[in-house]
Amino acid sequence: MRSVLWLRARGGSRVLVYALLAASAVWVVVPLLWAVLNSIKTLEDTFRAGAIIPFLQFVPTLTSWRTVLMDPGILHALLTSIVVSAGTTLLVLLISLPAAYSLARFDFFVSSRDVTLWFLSQRVLPPVVLLVPFYIMMVQFHLIDTWTGLIITYSTFSLAFGVVIMRDVFRDISKEVEEAAKVEGATPWQIFVWIALPLSVDGIVVTAINIFAFSWNEALFSSAFTSLDAQTLASFILASRGTRDVNFNLAAANTLLAIGPPVILSFFFQRYLARGLSLGAVKG
Q1: Which residue in 170, 160, 169, 155 sits closest to 116, CA to CA?
Q2: Is residue 153 within 8 Å of residue 221, measured between CB atoms?
Q3: Burial of 18 (C-beta count, 10 Å sphere; 0-12/13-18/19+)
Q4: Per the domain annotation, does 179 fall within a domain?
Q5: Rounded Cα–Cα distance for residues 266 and 200 (Å)
Q6: How far apart are CA 14 and CA 46, in angstroms?
Q7: Closest CA to 196 of 162, 226, 170
Q8: How far apart are CA 163 and CA 210, in angstroms?
Q9: Which residues, in sequence order, are bridge partners of residue 267?
Q10: What is the pLDDT of residues 175-203, one digit of tens each?
């Protein structure tokens, strides 16, 4: 069903909207096409002007992909990114879901709104400000260049996002259902596990994918805290730049390999994303 505002919009407004959408699409698609084309070029073709159309202006080759996929370093970095991102997502959900439900349903000596605002303020703080204190703490606990250290660090910054988002999701759940469960003798934990969580699956999936994507793309702390054993894919790509020039064909293949898992993950959970992103948009 079309929006009433869109149907009543003037022709100029519609043209402006279409122009903005087209510009946004170009902004996203062009870098992706650049990466795809350069990943099937030789290093010489990447520097040759006008080599854009495959088989006509250059001969496609999978040499870059073979070089990347046969590199033990990047395969280990890929495994590290998967483990760290999945571990961070799981840890944040385990902590943020009960905390968000408590803020949505119970009263404290400090108002729930103030506590939520404090959580939200943690996302406003630039992460680079905490780089040195976190590094000192990781050294003290012998967590430098470890998966555990990265998971703890990423969870610290993602926890606020999980609490803020899931609090609004739990608030949208009808209290009548929970009151009926209380009448039947259900405990608060039983209500949370068997009623609140199943009714908020869409919001949980959206939160989990966003946390996974943040952990997957993070490069600042991974570059500072790791050197070899726990190097993530993002920090590996940053460190792969040569001293004399940039191998754009290898960089393009690494880029596509890096953006692949989050994109594939979003395709599998597209149904939940479409519903979860609209939670709280319409109030009854």
Answers
A1: 160
A2: yes
A3: exposed
A4: yes
A5: 18
A6: 39
A7: 170
A8: 13
A9: none
A10: 888 888 888 888 888 989 899 999 888 88
b/e per residue 80-105 (b: at least 16 CB within 10 A): bbeebbebbbebbbeebbbbbbbbbb
Residue with tokens 């070089």: 67
Whether residues 56 and 99 fall in one domain: no
Query: Count of CB atoms within 10 A of residue 36's CB?
Result: 14
As a whole number of angstroms, the distance between CA 54 and CA 75 comes to: 28
Are both 239 and 271 inside the same structural domain? Answer: yes
Region for 247 from its dihedrals, namely left if φ exceeds 0, alpha if ψ lies in -120 to 50, beta otherwise:
beta
Q: Take residue 99 and report the two structure tokens written for it.
A: 């905390």
- CA 107, CA 109: separation in Å to the nearest integer? 7
The length of the chain in residues reads 284
The answer to whether 103 and 163 are in contact (CB under 8 A) is: yes
- pLDDT per position as a tens digit, 86-117: 999 999 999 999 989 988 888 777 776 777 77
Whether 206 and 116 map to the same domain: the answer is yes
Amino acid identity, residue 221? F
Rounded to two decimals, the pTM is: 0.82
Nearest-10 Cα torsion for 143, 149, 153, 158: -160
Q: Are residues 153 and 170 in the same domain?
A: yes
